[in-house]
Design goal:
mainly alpha, 4 helices
Length: 157
């Protein structure tokens, strides 16, 4: 091959064919890449449009659950404050008042067990005792009072 091949008509035709093939190949590759990118983008948009209502519904359910959880937690803390106040006040109450508390405690405990809200009574639960040592101690002292024999003040005939 001589150095002037590319300057000859045969060289020009060969380069023209190679350039055309190269251009076609690059154009095909560019078109393919653009088509894939457009297809993926379209697929993502369609998937987002199809799932967006479900996502919004799930988000609203999560928000409702969070609101209810905070409301339940607030109720629990309100009952805890009331219960701790009862514990403090009943510690120095008369024995009749303490027995009235025990009667109400047993009634509420029976109702809760009947509705299957409690599996075990708080005074018998180790988890309750670990989490609420003051309340557990109070319940044990109240139950001990209930177990004491009562004096019989009736007249003997």
């Amino acid at each position: 091959m001589s150095n002037d091949f590319y300057a000859s008509p045969q060289g020009a035709m060969a380069m023209h064919g190679a350039g055309r093939n190269l251009g076609r190949s690059e154009g095909w590759r560019d078109g393919y890449d653009e088509g894939i990118a457009e297809g993926v983008a379209l697929g993502r948009r369609q998937a987002q449009e199809a799932t967006q209502p479900q996502i919004e519904q799930l988000l609203s359910q999560v928000r409702a659950l969070e609101d209810r959880t905070w409301t339940d937690r607030e109720k629990y803390f309100a009952f805890a404050v009331v219960g701790l106040a009862a514990i403090e006040s009943l510690g120095s109450a008369s024995q009749e008042q303490q027995l009235a508390f025990l009667t109400a405690y047993n009634r509420l405990l029976s109702e809760a067990k009947a509705k299957q809200l409690l599996n075990i009574a708080p005074h018998a639960s180790d988890a309750f005792e670990r989490g609420n040592p003051v309340a557990a101690k109070f319940l044990r002292s109240m139950l001990a009072i209930a177990m004491q024999p009562q004096a019989d003040h009736s007249p003997n005939l």
